[in-house]
């Protein structure tokens, strides 16, 4: 599935993301280094924060549980906020567009 990433300077990059990997991994494996993802995808650092574009919020779903709590600790939480290590790329997310959140 294709994943479109908007970095902090507004530049857009289209990535061919493997099915079953997380959005965080897809972003990091494709040379976008703004996403620190310090915990490596364990849902404990919140440095993989992205904003899911409005049209995609339904299919992607909202943050729940620990992810929801971690996002609450961010100064930049907004509609569409998700931790990208908790979004798995699947065929139905082909064309997903996310923007990297500002650093906390
Ligand atoms: Fe740490 Fe996502 S990489 S919470």
TrEMBL record:
It comes from the Bacteria. The keyword Ubl conjugation does not apply. Keywords: 2Fe-2S, Iron, Iron-sulfur, Metal-binding. Its cofactor is [2Fe-2S] cluster. CDD domains: fer2. It comes from Sphingobium cupriresistens LL01. Belongs to the adrenodoxin/putidaredoxin family. This is Ferredoxin. Coiled coil: none annotated. Signal peptide: none annotated. GO terms for biological process: P450-containing electron transport chain.
